[in-house]
Amino acid sequence: MIKLIVFDLDDTLYNEFQFVQNGFKAVAEYLSHKYLIDSKELQSKMLNILNEYGRGKIFNVLCEKCGFIEAMNDLVFIYRNAKCKLNLYDDAYYILEKLRYNYKLGLITDGKASVQWNKIKCLGVENYFDKIIVTDDFGRMYWKPHEYSYKKMLEYFKCEPQEAIYVGDNPTKDFIGARKVGFFTVRIIREFGDNMKLKEEKGYEADFTINNLKELINIIQLLHLKK
Ligand SMILES: [Mg+2]
């Protein structure tokens, strides 16, 4: 009998690219005021750099290209703490509304703690979840795929692992710890997201794969029938 559904956040419940764009916008506005350059132009430069170089050195490259003298830490701080309104995917909104009164709902998310909490606030999803775990609050070593957060979740709800499902998008880290602890696992593969084309290594795969969170209803029913 399934009692607990735990979700990943980034690219599972919303498109993380929204957060990236919002962060770029905040940094572009800051630089635009300082150097009197059009902020839209700066945003599109950042997107081009992202496409060309990937994440990591975007602001360094931008400053170098534009001749800005900036402390990277300041720009990263503005990016990470940008206040914004993020929106859940439609199917995420649907499924959370559908499940919230009949199941316990949890969230386990990786990433720098202040950033993840900012995203949670920007999404306004606190009320959907009975328990939210930002793994970074326990320390970097407890990020997924570490099992600790999954165990904590079960402890909190006094649930057995076979009563719990974990839903995520990243086959390199979302399912291995969850499976070790004994959760059922579900991978969402969407049209957009960094991890959508990743192939699962053996042992890293999820029990089920879906393309829309509404399909979770069928999986829950299937698992109920099995018991
Ligand atoms: Mg994710």
Fold and architecture overview:
- The chain is α/β, with parallel strands linked by helices and 227 residues long.
- The protein has two domains: 4-14 and 85-226, HAD superfamily/HAD-like (Rossmann fold, 3-Layer(aba) Sandwich), CATH 3.40.50.1000; 17-80.
- Helix content is 44%, strand content 12%.
- It has helices at 16-35, 39-53, 58-66, 72-80, 90-99, 113-123, 148-157, 176-181, 216-226; strands spanning 4-7, 104-109, 131-134, 164-168, 184-188, 208-210.
- The protein has a six-stranded parallel β-sheet, sandwiched between helices.
- Strand 2, helix 6 (113-123) and strand 3 form a beta-alpha-beta unit.
- The longest helix is centred in the N-terminal third of the chain and has 20 residues, at 16-35.
- It is elongated and about 65 Å long.
- The termini are close together.
- Magnesium ion binds at residues 8, 10-12, 168-170.
- Residues 8, 10-12, 168-170 line the site of magnesium ion.
- Report the β-strand fraction as a percent range: 5-15%
How would you write the strand order of the largest sheet? 3-2-1-4-5-6
- The domain tally reads 2
Overall outline: elongated
Which architecture of the largest domain does the CATH hierarchy give at level 2? 3-Layer(aba) Sandwich
- Counting helices, strands and paired strands, the structural category is alpha/beta
Helix share, percent:
40-55%
What's the number of helices? 9
CATH superfamily of the largest domain: HAD superfamily/HAD-like
Rounded average pLDDT: 94
